[in-house]
Backbone:
């Protein structure tokens, strides 16, 4: 793990190649004062190609958002130049108002003010389904 240039902050590793910018936007990293580096298309022995994001400050990371966009991410926490925590992100079980149900007959489309709630099914290749109409979202998009 190369933590060069990071004093205290995070290195998001093993991001699926091409998703780095999506995560950058989803976490609103452009609004931070500290330096943020998005490194794209890095060669990885484990996953082929990957993206890496380095954040040189301590922020409140939204891990649910991360796990929803990309299930492969490893979050490394760095303090005083040392790796103090490494965790694998797992996708959140429930998403509230992140995905929108596209079924025109779903209650979330016909009624106003209904929360869009999706639940993750069981199993490795599980998908998020709308809790009202069971519509699924195979492709994870924002
Ligand atoms: Zn629905």
Residues:
């Amino acid at each position: 793990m190369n933590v060069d240039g990071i004093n205290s902050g995070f290195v998001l590793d093993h991001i699926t190649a091409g998703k780095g910018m999506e995560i950058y936007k989803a976490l609103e990293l452009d609004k931070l004062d500290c330096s943020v580096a998005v490194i794209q298309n890095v060669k990885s022995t484990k996953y082929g190609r990957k993206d890496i994001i380095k954040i040189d400050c301590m922020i409140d990371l939204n891990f649910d958002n991360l796990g929803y966009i990309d299930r492969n991410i490893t979050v490394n926490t760095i303090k005083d130049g040392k790796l103090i925590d490494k965790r694998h992100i797992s996708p959140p079980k429930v998403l509230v108002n992140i995905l929108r149900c596209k079924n025109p007959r779903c209650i979330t489309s016909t009624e106003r003010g209904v929360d869009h709630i999706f639940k993750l099914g069981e199993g490795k290749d599980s998908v998020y389904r709308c809790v009202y109409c069971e519509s699924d979202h195979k492709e994870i998009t924002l």
Notes: The chain has two domains: 9-88, 94-137. Residues 99 and 142 are 7 Å apart (CA to CA).
